[in-house]
């Protein structure tokens, strides 16, 4: 019996390692089809960095990438792996690639908080600028991936001055984790924060000075009419707007009824909104959906 249990334990370990390796694979890129370019899409040179949240991996943005490539809207041209020690490995290029998608994969993304991801993001974006000459970068970030991005840019004057972020899309991103879904955003502001990470952000954003304006799109889910996507209360995400200043930012938000935390990077309604934000020739107005 002991031998059987031991063998079963080994099987589970091997299976777990196999699944982990499988989920670390990047999604296959497909080039834009020149003869099928769409008249409503602006094909430009600004790449978009896809940042996963806690536990996220190559699967996180697989549907998004496949959807945009099938629709001939964008193309995945670069994969970046970051090891647990912070080593950054890049495959592909964004040079001369229109509507390029960069798939970022953290090889071990099961950390107790987003502090490691914050450090890895600073290193990754710096490398994109210095080695690949990326001076403009759009962002799609899910959950703690968005938290890490906000902290990374707030921490670094270099990232603020050397790289522009025209459009930043945050998906179910907690900014102030003091509150649950039982309190409104207005009430939470009056009550005050006890989240030390958020308090640090407030101080950093008082000195925040990006090289050019950033437009933030704060997209949230709502399960069964509740004020949460099932994982992140929307009140936590809404605190993003308190950090921003009209002098260098614009802010839009939308809540998607019936979309849970995972659905924010899978649901076709959200995917369609994001492609309109990033590449549509006409400006769209965000509304709660």
Question: Could you explain how this protein is built, in words?
Answer:
Helix content is 37%, strand content 18%. It is an alpha/beta fold and 289 residues long. Strands 3-2-4-1-5-6-7-8 form an 8-stranded mixed sheet, sandwiched between helices. Strand 2 (75-82) and strand 3 (88-92) form a beta hairpin. Residues 2-22 have low confidence and may be disordered.
Outline of the structure:
This protein has 289 residues and is of the alpha/beta class.
Topology:
Blueprint: H1 2-23, E1 48-51, H2 62-70, E2 75-82, E3 88-92, E4 100-106, H3 115-132, E5 138-142, H4 144-155, H5 157-162, E6 167-171, H6 185-191, H7 196-206, E7 214-222, H8 234-238, H9 240-243, E8 249-257, H10 268-279
Parallel strand pairs: 1-4, 1-5, 2-4, 5-6, 6-7, 7-8
Antiparallel strand pairs: 2-3
Helix pairs in contact: 3-4
The dominant shape is globular
The strand count comes to 8
Distance between the termini: 56 Å
Mean pLDDT: 92
Count of individual helical segments: 10
Q: Give the helix level as a range of percent.
A: 25-40%
Please give the radius of gyration in angstroms. Answer: 19 Å
Element order: H for helix, E for strand? HEHEEEHEHHEHHEHHEH
- Biggest sheet: strand arrangement: 3-2-4-1-5-6-7-8
Pick out the low-confidence regions. Answer: 2-22
Q: Main beta sheet, described?
A: 8 strands, mixed
Helix/strand class: alpha/beta
- What share of the residues does DSSP label as strand, in percent? 15-25%
